[in-house]
Amino acid sequence: MEYEVVRPQDLSPARIARWGELQAQDILFDSPYLSPEWARAVARAQRPSDAVRVVVASRGGRDVAFLAAKVGAYTAMPAGAPMCDYQGLVAEPGAGVSARELVQALGVHRFDFAHWLEGVGPFDAYARGRMVSHVVDVSGGYAAYEAERKAAGVGLLKDCEKKRRKAEREHGEVKFTAYSRSEAAFEQLIAWKRAQYRATGQTDIFAAEWTGRLLRDLFASRDPEFGGALFTLHLGDRLAAVHLHLRGRHTIHGWIIAHDPAFEKLSPGLLLFQSILKWMDETPYRRLDLGPGDYRFKRELANARQGMSHGFVGLPSPATLVRGAAYGVRAAAEALPLGRVSELPGKAMRRMDRWRALR
Using an 8 Å Cβ cutoff, are 167 and 174 in contact? Predict the structure, then answer.
């Protein structure tokens, strides 16, 4: 196996086409986070852009796998972390790529991952923990999906219809807009999201300048197969909810969502999700991926799940020893019956990883 490391902006048209060809082999790879366009968008947004690299694995002159990463002095992580809910190696079946050889090709001692797709590539052996991403499959149409959810005993969609009628009675027309180009709605989304981060004590991902550049670049995108898609919901004349999602060829990936707290009881964010799912009947999109996170609305909307993992691939080095020790402390704490206290080492690791990625 041969490995070549290039900048995303230096990928040839033939290689971009080959990457797309590998993505098209399985709906799982359709995630926009796994596309060459994502790597190129992240490189445009980050400073210096040279930190983003693509490892191209080839055999006999044929490209068989692609991996986009942000490369530091000693460690690397998937390109765009922590803004990417999906991470993975896009490869042809049976490519025979070595995870450690990929790390060596990047010129670092360790590769950390947080939302790695299970069952693809050689990284499963390096997982230290697992989770699921919640997926809504509407390939049979919204009506069939709604009937399936009802048969499964899920009443969320019925509740949404009740709240939609209540919103119409109290506030006027419920207006849904797909592919909104409203700058005001985009800025309000960011403002609501930052207020939510402050209120919940979470890391403000928009404090890093590159994340704002990335969102604005994708919001402005006109590429039919990749970019941001802004969706809005108005109750009467008031903006009630805004979503900025990412578009792949056949998948929309849930990304940045927020709503006006004044309408909390009407669940405008859920009403907007339902409107998007209905709208998808008229589009080439077959899946709405809600991403990881153990939230009730995700569990009840989803009719499919994708396994994911977090962990690292390390070469013999101090960086690998430090990461292994951190995971050891985390595993020991999570094995203890201490409730939320057991979760503290894991939370500290995630917060530190987010800080590293946002620098």
Answer: yes
